[in-house]
Amino acid sequence: DTSINKEYVCQIRAINHIELRSLERGYLQKIFVDEGQHVKQGQPMFQIMPLVYQAEMEKSKADVEYAEIEYQNTKTLSDKNIVSQQELALSKAKLDREIADLKLSQTRLGLTSIKAPFSGIMDKFQARLGSLLEEGELLTTLSDNSKLWVYFNVPEAEYLDYAARIKKEGPQKVKLLMANNEIFNHDGVFETIEADFNNETGNIAFRATFPNPEGILRHGETGTILLPSHIKNALLIPQEATFDILDKKFVFVVDEKGVIHANQITVGLEMPHIYT
Question: How far, in Å, CA of 172 to CA of 154, rounded?
Fold first, then answer.
């Protein structure tokens, strides 16, 4: 019995990787963070000049106060049957409209302060201090690298073997060979398979999840997934003991009489220095 590692080139992706964009137009007034910095959820990152939106909110507050006074006066007159219920309803509707406008102004003012939606690592800035930002303009990207999703493609025949094994044995652990040929010091868990095969390549994408507590791996890296495969009753032959004739492989075998014969072999799998 033996185990071998099948190798698959993989793409490493952060569990959360998003673009941060301006939701309002204005000048970039303050930058509270730096490129490559680790930020916490809710931490202020950028401030777009809020003067216009602050003024709009103050105007909306005044409009609400005016509508509130007008409504109270109308209600007093309505209680004395001086004005109709319809006029009171119109006054209440005006007050509700002004309250809604105030909430909208407060929301727009809040959008000028951009905070981290989750803890992660900043990427490079796409806008500098003092830049005039348009609505939807890209500021930077943010990556949560605490966990990583690693994607790799598997041929159809191997997919069928793994699907049967996973159904029988449950989630399988895998290792990651990094670009410097070192094994990542945390095992990953093979979790999910995409829905469809790629008709052009005959492959299907697998995804494994790796913990990344030290933050060594980053979004966008590449590596090699090592997926263990177990073989029972394997016949192992050192590669040095074989020789080739055209496209066929042979080994020397000694029979019961001590006579040497050249026997052709069929290689099932190839491991470092060994055929099976």
Answer: 15
Q: Strands 113-115, 260-265: parallel, antiparallel or unpaired by DSSP?
A: unpaired
SS3 252: strand
In this prediction, the residues of the chain whose per-residue pLDDT falls under 50 are none
State how far the alpha carbon of 98 is from the alpha carbons of 104, 249, 275, in Å: 10, 87, 80
Contact 113, 47 (CB under 8 A): yes
Report which secondary-structure segment, H or E, holds 91: helix 85-110
What's the CA gap between 212 and 109, in Å, rounded?
Answer: 37
Per-residue tokens: 5? 């590692």
* List of residues 6+ apart from 118 with CB closer than 8 A: 16, 41, 142, 144
Q: Are 267 and 237 in contact, with CB atoms under 8 Å apart?
A: no
The pTM of this model reads 0.68
Give CA–CA dist 18/41, Å, rounded. Answer: 14
Write out the H or E segment, with its range, that includes residue 163. Answer: helix 156-169
Helix (H) or strand (E) holding 170: none
* The pLDDT value given to residue 41: 93
- Would you say 17 and 143 are in contact if contact means Cβ atoms under 8 Å apart? yes
- By three-state DSSP, how is residue 200 classified? coil
pLDDT of residue 247: 86
Q: What is the pLDDT of residues 231-245, one digit of tens each?
A: 788 888 888 999 988
* Beta bridge mates, 155: 203
